[in-house]
Write a structure and sequence with these properties.
Layout lengths: L18 H10 L25 H12 L39 H8 L7 E4 L5 H17 L4 E5 L9 H9 L3 H4 L2 E6 L9 E6 L6
Parallel strand pairs: 1-2
Antiparallel strand pairs: 2-4, 3-4
Length: 208
Amino acid sequence: MARAGSMCCWSMTTRKPSADEQALFREAMQGAKPIARKKRVSSSAVNTAPAVTPAKAGAQASADSAGGPMDPRFRGDDKRRGSPVAPAPKAKPPLDAGRIADLDKRTGERFKRGEMAIDAKIDLHGLTQAEAHDKLQGFLAKAAAGGKRCVLIVTGKGAGGWGVLRDAVPRWLNEPEMRRHLLAFSLAQPRHGGAGALYALLKRKREP
């Protein structure tokens, strides 16, 4: 009769167990309860969920706290983050009396010599600075809108060759509201008032 310790070897042999061996096996298995079918778990069903790495877990937590998947447009390392910033417009250089930068040489010389037709004229004599400033600004806007090209601004020479308006008008012409209408200005020729007047050349409507 085979010993109980030899039962583990039955499965390794190809011979049919003897009657004694079968009786011994039944005796050893008395009291054993079979496993219920519903409790049997297939080894293939274990650990079927995909592994979650710490990096993936952190990304998922961030997405969940934000209420959805992370939008690539808002990642810190994304160069496309934010809207592109338009470059600031290039500032125009200040105008000085007689400085002709945006004209061809022939037109610039004609302008400074007073050879261009005077399309409109304004006389600021007798006005306060505030009055003269407002009147000049309105005059230039109206002249530009009307397609005027060359205008004459009379400031007066002032007592002793020095005048408040004569000194102020060139500064005013560089203010944005007036500068945007102008290409150039220059001291007038004696026949048009000399040092007490200025020529102003206005932009055509198609010019920037």
